[in-house]
Model the fold of this input.
Amino acid sequence: MKTVPFACLLALCACGDSTSAGDDAGTKPGDCPAPSAETTFFVTDEGNGSNGGNFGGLDGADNFCLAAAMRAGLGPKGWRAYLSTGSVHAKDRIGDGPWKNSRGESVGDNTSIHAAGIAKSLILSECQRPITYSASDPGGRGAHDIMTGTGPQGELQRQFDQNGLPNGDPATCAEWTSNASTEVAWVGHSDWDGPDDGWNTAHMTQGCSPSALAATGANGRLYCFATD
Done:
């Protein structure tokens, strides 16, 4: 994944970068209502296109969040992608909160979102859209699988071993650097309906390629939290 030039971000990505912004329908003028200036949490309206699960690592994923925020007219705010790796837990990347969604509604702080979750009615894109599953478009607008690599407590989730226990390799698309069909990632559901179907943890993907992600309802969307 390419690094988004900061000058481009300041211009709300007017210069364009199809690989960093994803290859789906995108954020169009008039199609993305201005979010609340208080927005500090959103799920990305766009996916990662042909890059699948490859964001260029955590830094690239943070840039993906930053690009989405800047396109929507939000400031830098220290955006962080809610992702775990073998060396860092998602909960430790995003600060303490509390956070507000793109309508300015409170979604909770770091403690509450990992104890009670985030109400699905509050999980909105930067364009104030709920992201709900659609069987007719599971790899596009209906992609409700959100990349996390994370368990319910905000910590790294591993692949299942031969005994059916999550003791295998990290389920993180090779630390968010791979779009191979042989890698997998753990995802949450933006329209979750617990207790075994959570906003940050629901199931593994079939792979990290675009087609493998789409097979379970994913397209490389991320949760983004502001740390500033």
User: Anything to note?
Assistant: The beta strands are 41-43, 79-81, 99-100, 106-108, 145-147, 186-189, 203-204, 218-226.
